[in-house]
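B., you asked whether I could sanity-check this one before it goes into the benchmark set. Here's the sequence:
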Amino acid sequence: MLPARELEYRILQFVYSHANGGWQPTTLGTLANWVDWSHQDKLTAALKRLHKKGCLELRQWLMGATGYAAYAGADDFFYRNGFEMKITAEGYPYFEELQEQGDETRRRLKAYLDNDVVSAFAKADMPPGTLQALKALLELFSQEKVELVTSDLSKREIDRMPEGIPNKWHLDVIVGLLKKVPFVEDHELRGFQSHWDRFGGTSSPLIEDDPIASDLRGVGLHRADAHHVMLAIRAGCDVFVTCDKRTILNRRAEIERRFSIQLESPEEFVSRFK
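And here's what the prediction gave me:
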């Protein structure tokens, strides 16, 4: 696929995986990071092409105005504050067409490594069968047959470990070497609810949970596990690789039924390539 078409695909994939058919807010910097495209001039050109083709709606909230203003062709639209995007009815067939035209690189399996898998690379404290699978996983990665990713959530969990913990430095190095999927909080502060009268008052934060993370917690995952799986789903990963059989893998049937991702142990994942 031509680079320009690949960039268009990644933009549409970003909106498709985040917005659930609605409007997706972003900034040019956030979008560039997610689509892994450093040239902002080419990124804005792709946004303009998708808009001109009728595949993408663009709008922006105007400060001091009463609502949103649709994109009208001004170059500074993408550089002032943020903006919102929405795939049109005509945009979905084009997105599917680009998806079918995907090159061999994109067709590689994209696997998110849970924090316990990352830890196993550094600690080597798993059963021999798992360690052998991890070695095979690295060989597949070196042969460019799979794409291995994690997120900054793993980095945060490592940073919370006390200094002096054995292998903490090795964990930090491994996480630093892996490509990161875009980080999204599992909740968002929407504002404050306040009530005041002559006797005083209260102000309470209004917190909205990410719907995917909330559903995963409803299935029975702990909050940190649900956050990892949510990040993998939102990043369009094919497989979530984990050693956690007790909490995550024993709930995979329900999670795979509700979300477009496979949950596998390292042994199961590498067996795909035998």
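One thing to flag: The chain has 13 helices and eleven strands. Otherwise nothing jumped out at me.
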